[in-house]
Every structure is written in structure tokens, then in C-alpha cells.
Amino acid sequence: MSTSRAVAALCAALGAGLALPALAQDATQARSLAATCFTCHGTDGRSVGGVPPSLAGQSKAYLVQAMKDFQSGKRPATVMHQQAKGYTDAQLDAIAGYFTGIKPGSGVAAPAAGN
Which CATH number fits domain 22-100: 1.10.760.10, 1.10.150.170, 3.90.640.20, 1.10.645.10? Predict the structure, then answer.
């Protein structure tokens, strides 16, 4: 391998190593933002019984558009319009990306209190 190729390979490897903590931080931040949805939509966006709808595995474009529709009032809701207005476009993108990466499935109901 030539010296310039070796230097390029080393730079690429170092750059990738520096990017990994940033990606992990972004994933943690996205999960933290998405956690606000867990109360109604279930842990990791898997609702119990489908009401409200599960978010896990939905397309990113669909989720972002739905949130923008809630923000604008185009899509009627009881509380989602208030929730959606609290996020920037970048935050909505991160939340949608998080749920897109979650495997869809049914949520599990929490055990009853006192059991």
C-alpha cells in the first residue's frame, strides 16, 4: 500500500472512531425525546391494543408529516397538537427516526397495582 493510501485509510479509521460517540449520543438523545411518547403510545411506541396507534416501525416520512399536521392543527387531536408544538423540526426528525428503527409489535400491559 502506498504511503498516501495508508494515510487516507488511517484518517478514515480515526474519523469513523470519532463519529461513533456522536452517533451514540444522537441515538440516546432521540430515545430521550421519544420517551415522552411512551406514556400514551407504549414502551418503544408499541401500544397495547392499538389505541392510540403504535409508532414502532412506522415510516419516518409518515411520522414527521403526522407531527407537522398536529402542529399546524390540520390533524385534529385532543393533546397531540400541544405535544407536537413543543418540538423543533430536527427533534421531530430524531423522534421519527427512532420509532422507524424499532421493530413493530404489540405492547405489553403493565401489571396491575398491588400484584
Answer: 1.10.760.10
